Each structure stands twice: as C-alpha cells, then as structure tokens.
Amino acid sequence: MASPGITVRLLGDPSSEPARAVPHVGQRYQELRRQCLEQRRLFTDPSFDAVPSSLGYWELGLGSENIKGLEWKRPQEICRSPKFIEEDMSRTDVKQGKLSDCWFLAAAASLTLYPRLMQRVVPRGQSFAREDYAGIFHFQFWQYGQWVDVVVDDRLPVKNGELVFVHSCQSDEFWMPLLEKAYAKLNGSYEAINGGYMNEAFVDLTGGVGETYQLKMPNPELFKVIRAALTKRSLMGAHIKITRREDMEGQTPEGLVKGHAYSITAVRKLDHGGKKLKLLRLRNPWGKVEWNGRWSDNSPLWAGLVPQTSLQVRKEDGEFWMQMDDFLRYFDALEICSLTPDLLEEEKGVGWNVHAFQGRWSTGFTAGGCRSSGLRDGFWMNPQYHVRLLEADEADLRKQRLDPSCTLLVSLMQKDRRQDRKRGKDFLPIGFEILKMPKEVTNEREVVISLSPWAGLPSQLAAGRLIRSG
Q: Does the keyword DNA repair apply (predicted)?
C-alpha cells in the first residue's frame, strides 16, 4: 500500500516526439523570404529590431557607455563580398568578441566537428548569392522538448567598422555572427547570453542530455569516460571555477583563463620515455591565449617523440594539447552532453528511450525544499517520479556480468530564465536526488515516499547548481 502523502502523476509531454521545428514568435522563414524576394526588399525583423533593447538592459542597455558609437550594419556594408560559409564550418571559425558568451561559442565550435548535427542547427541553402539573398537567415535550437526555428535579419552590431561580438577568422564569413544573433533573439537580447555553462548550450544545440563531472573528485576512469564520450560523438567542455567576480576571465601564469569555457575536441595516448601518456586537445573560443605548459604548441617535449607526430601545431589559434594530469590539476569541471537517438546516425547498439515531462514547484503543494536545508520535514512534498529500470546495458550483457547495470540519464531544466534577467531574475539553484527504493516496495504500482522514510534512503545522485559562468 502506498505511503500517505502527495502523488505527482506525470503525463508524457507530446512535444518530446520528433517533429518539425516550430516557428519562433510565428515567423516562417520560407514565407518571409519569398515575400522579400517578390517585393525586392531586404528583411528587417520587427521582433528583434536594430535597437538598444536587442543589445541588452544594463551593461548593454540604453545609455550605457558600452554601446556608444555602435551601429547596425549588414554584411555587405562591412566587407566587399560577404559569404555565409567559407568552404566548411570549422571550430576555428569561432572567435569571441566583447560578450561573455564563451560557453555558447565553445559549444558551437565543438558542434562543427559533427557536420550532421550542425546541419540541424544551421540549415542548408542559405547564402549571400544575389538570386537568393533577401537579408533573412534562420537557425534552429532545441527548447524544452521541441526544435524551434528562429528567423533573423542580417543587421549586426558594429563599432569602428568591425563586428562587436563573435566573428570568424575569415573577415568575409558570417554564419557564426548570425547564429549568435539568433541565439540572442531566442533569449531576449545579447546581454541575456552573458555567462553560462557549456551544457546549457550543448542541450540547446542538440537536444541531448548533459552531465557534469567535478574534476577535484578522484575518478580513475575519467580518461576512459572522455574517450568513450568522443567515440559516441558526445560534446564536451571544461572550465576553471572562480570564487570572486573580479577573477572572471583572468589569465593564469600557465596561459589558462579563469571562469572561461573550453571545448574538448580530441584525446590521444602517446609513448614517451617508455611511458604511456594521456593527452587532451582543448580549444579557447577566443582563438588565442593558449596553455604554455607541458605539450603546449612550443613545448620541447614534442621533439622527444619517436616517430614524430603531426599532433603538434605551432599556431596561435586557441587550440592546444594538454597532459591529463595537468588538465585535472588546473580545471575544475568537465561537462558532457550525450546525444539522443534522433541525432545519432543509425547504428547497431543504440537503444535509448527518451521521455520528457513538464512540471513545477508550487508553494504549499509541491515545493518541499531540499534535505540539507531547514525545510527537511517538507522534502516529501516535492514531485516524486518513479522509474523502474528493466533492461540491462547491452555491453554488460555481452560481458555476461552477474550484476549488469542499466544507464539512466536525467536532465533538469528551467524555462525562460534568461528572458527574465532584465526583470532582475536569474537561474534558481534547483536540483534533484535519485533514491534507491527498498526491494519490498519496488513491485508496488503506486508508491509515495512520505516524511519518515527519507532519512533512511541513500542518495544515489544529488545534482543542483546555479547556472552561471563566463
């Protein structure tokens, strides 16, 4: 018999099913583009106009010193022959501007390594060719269970003739500045995307499920985790935590940037002096400022490799190799985004089931606080989602393990918090716990954990944080 208390019964979210992208604010790209071509005019976006409110509300708001002298210009007013994409989209196309959105840019740079994923975010068929050009572009982002198609015009913030925010190494390439503008529009303004964690961007760019590893907690299997994640085409990033706001983007003597997001793009094992070394390749979205320690671009250690390797690239492009133990010493968190089945190419062994649910904490009904707070007695009031894992992982079955595991990934998201920043609101420190139920109640169809049993149940996982990074 179920324990007394509140039961929250979840209904499957229909938007979690694969579907066409929904037009953001009702703007349909093909229809708007056709109208502009027929009327021989360039598109101007009334829902994200070239006005101060599109830039921001405080640091980039009306009257701010930061936006003095800023203009909005179309690419053909910035360079002679603009191109949407120069050859192919590459991680080196992404160079951060005067906006603290490295978390988004590093995620976008990682995504370029997987063209099939990038084509979902940056739809094909867009260009500045005269016969196709109407000053309108579109991009797609995943939002709370569905893909959203965001339309933008190509007016970009410029100061002294140069782009203010993200730009490409090729001065005539504009896919990345326009992608950044579309993401700013989705979140309300450019300033709204100041600061964040890479997993937030990874999820918005893929619809995948994010998880975080704290690097100061020993994990002998971490290199295997990273290598397996890259093999599965998961997206990854890392950052160095800060404790004071003034430390944001401060540089260490080793050439690393605090509070800054780096993408992880490759791993290698090398034989050096009779030892097996583990190396990671990272990239700074600034496109400059690199690690200067062991195995950096100019490290003498490369000369000792026999045979010589092509891994070493002496170029100030923001990309560098780093030994695993140095990575663990200087970085604080690793973020991994695992992709869902609709984003993975069909292959044997992929057996994910995906479910999305929506809900809320309501004061007096389903808001019970956390166990570590003074509201512990009300913890049972929180929404309880009961999950039974019935199928073992195929890898464990193949190895005929006596106690096989079943992988479960859980992601918790907050809606529309960036749009509310202009009203003084921000992300809340929310979280969840996964608890192992006693065997005697696992066969019950309806189980509610009430007040007393919480204290005796071991927490298998606790996750909670305030999403904020530089």
A: no
Matching residue, tokens 């290698």: 268
Residue 371 pLDDT greater than 60, yes or no? yes
Burial class (CB in 10 A: 0-12, 13-18, 19+), 243: exposed
Tokens of 312: 């070493």
Q: Is 260 a catalytic residue?
A: yes
Question: 282 pLDDT exceeds 50?
Answer: yes
User: Which among 91, 268, 121, 97 is positioned nearest to 202, based on CA atoms?
Assistant: 121
Our answer to whether residue 284 is catalytic in this structure is yes
Q: Which domains does the chain have, with CATH numbers?
A: 209-337 (3.90.70.10)
Q: Peptide bond before 458: cis, by omega within 30 degrees of 0?
A: no
pLDDT tens for each residue of 236-255: 999 999 888 788 788 999 99
| Angle in degrees, CA 459, 413, 190, rounded to 5 | 140
DSSP strand pairing (71-73 vs 162-163): unpaired
3-state secondary structure (DSSP) of residue 435? strand
Residue 198's nearest CA partner among 185, 186, 213, 188 is 213
Place of tokens 């992982």: 393
By mean pLDDT, which of 33-37, 149-153, 382-386 is the weakest?
382-386
pTM of the predicted model, to two decimals? 0.78
Backbone angles phi, psi at 165, to 5 degrees: -105, -145
Catalytic residue among 24, 36, 102, 194: 102
| pLDDT: which is higher, 77 or 458 | 77
Phi-psi region of 52 (alpha: psi -120 to 50; beta: other; left: phi over 0): alpha
Flag the least confident range among 22-26, 178-182, 384-388: 384-388
Q: What share of the chain is helix, strand, coil (3-state, %, to 5)?
A: 25, 20, 55
Render pLDDT for 400-448 as a digit per residue (tens, 0 to 9): 888 888 877 777 888 877 887 777 777 788 888 888 777 776 666 555 5
Choosing from 24, 187, 260, 382, the catalytic residue is 260
Residue tagged active-site, from 36, 284, 370, 382 = 284
Taking alpha carbons only, the member of 310, 266, 316 closest to residue 292 is: 316
> Residue 334's beta-bridge partner residues?
213, 238
Q: What pLDDT score was predicted for residue 347?
A: 44
DSSP state of 17: S
Residue 17 has pLDDT above 50, yes or no: no
The C-alpha torsion from 138 through 144 and 145 to 151, rounded to 10°, is -10
Three-state secondary structure call for residue 294: coil
C-alpha distances (whole Å) from 431 to each of 121, 411, 464 are 29, 10, 4
* Residue that the structure tokens 């007393």 belong to: 452
Is residue 337 among the annotated active site residues? Answer: no
Cα–Cα distance between 410 and 354 in angstroms, integer? 10
E-strand stretches of 62-179:
71-73, 136-143, 146-153, 156-159, 162-163
Instruction: Identify residue 118 by its one-letter amino acid code.
Output: M
